[in-house]
Amino acid sequence: MDLESIGASPRITTTIKLDHTHVLAAFHRYRTDAPQWRKVAIVNTICAALEIHAQLEQEIFYPALRAANPTATVLDKSVPEHDAMRENIAKLRSMDPGSSGYDATLMVLMREVLHHVADEETILLPMAEDILAADLRRLGVRMNTRRAQLVSSRPAELAVNTAGTFPVLALTLAGAAAIALISVLRSRAR
Ligand SMILES: [Fe+2]
Ligand SMILES: [Fe+2]
After folding, report:
1. Ligand 2 centroid to 96 CA: how many Å?
2. What is the helix (H) or strand (E) element at residue 7, kind and residue range?
3. I need a labelling partner for 16 at 20 to 30 A (CA). Which of 114, 127, 150, 185 fits?
4. Residue 70, CA distances (Å) to 74, 91, 105 in order
5. Which ligand is nearest to the CA of 112?
6. What separation in Å is there between the alpha carbon of 120 and the centre of ligand 2?
7. What is the domain partition of the chain in residue ranges?
């Protein structure tokens, strides 16, 4: 990618905040009295978004922050918190959506995510803006390129669950997933 394109790309901190906003919006769509198919679609959307986001942070954002500030102990709890979140995701996927503990397990996951997101947005992202200033856009490009690869590995699942979660956005996002898939296939074909 040329320098001009990098200059027009969002910073990694902006991309991370957008991911947080998207997943919190999906949590707010959840209703305990909704039909089970809709609950499952929303939960699957939340879980996939969290998995992709956590992987992107662990592959790209946290290592960049760690390299720039090796003594940042606040980072020590980031991956363990992702792991705790993954345990709840696995638990939810193994549960019957009609079971008594389903809603409560999702609420536990939501509390964990809210706490984690608050720490990232009040501590890690401002730290990144300070110490990674010159690299924020380049890292944003890396994150979005990697995201396209991860999304393209599960496009049907993401499109179906997004349609059940955000019906109005579904067409746009399904289109974005298709475009991401095409661009990855083209780059592989070269
Ligand atoms: Fe995180
Ligand atoms: Fe995050």
Report:
1. 28
2. helix 3-8
3. 185
4. 11, 34, 35
5. 1
6. 6
7. 3-189
